Amino acid sequence: MKKIGFIDYYLDEWHAEKYPEWIENASNGVMKVTYAYGKKDSEKGLSNADWCEKKGIQLLRSIDEVVEKSDYLIVLSPDNPELHEELSILPLQSGKPTYVDKTFAPDRKTALLLFETAQRYGTPLYSTSALRFATEYVEADREGIETICSVGPGTYENYSIHQIEPIVSLMGCEPKQVMYFGTPKSPALLIRFANGRQATINHFGWECPFRMTLNYDSCNAKTLKPESDFFELFIKKMLTFFETGEPMVNPSETIAIITIIEYGLKARQTPYRLVDLP
After folding, report:
1. Which domains does the chain have, with CATH numbers?
2. Residue 117 backbone zone (phi > 0: left; psi -120 to 50: alpha; other: beta)
3. What is the pTM of this model?
């Protein structure tokens, strides 16, 4: 059995709760989350010790211990990407396949640092939104996409990744400019790509499902609504990554995604004005 270690800000959160069972089921018990570390206890839920006791996972006292004892590593903290540098540096020096949960980094500078560290130490690394692997998105025709209009729930800070990740996977990693045009309750961002292509993301209420409409240079349109079990597909891709050490997403795409998110936040300060991307 291959042992997986969790490294998290606090362990009583949705991703840490779901991943162990999904991983064990998808691998038929070949891989299992056996160790965990949390920087602090949840302020609204179980302590790290109580969470680990409930899950049958051994709580360790340091990131070093998790790295040493595990075959594969998962850095979580999905709602606090500003902690990913602190939580990831030791794993990325280990040479052991490391998955860093969404959102990968708070800014482009940190994203570049994490990939550079992984490359220096020969550590396989990748990150993604699970939405990337929705069958409806994966099977979409990428040739000739001119415009994408995407909608979904949640806040820009935590949920824009779920719209931007599939957009970049469909349109490529050459975003040029962004422009914010949303309202306080409905954030919205225009993303301009090379060759005049563009995409928009729109955040509405929690009742709004993810979906996007693609318009092609042929003037044909197609609306995609992810109804496949993209979390199951995401977990299977993660396990393949652990087995092969081959990232499922090109780092250039992840860096482009983080750049869009960071500069979208900057563009929010000057709505309706295009902001150049580095």
Report:
1. 2-127 (3.40.50.720), 130-228+261-276 (3.30.360.10)
2. alpha
3. 0.96
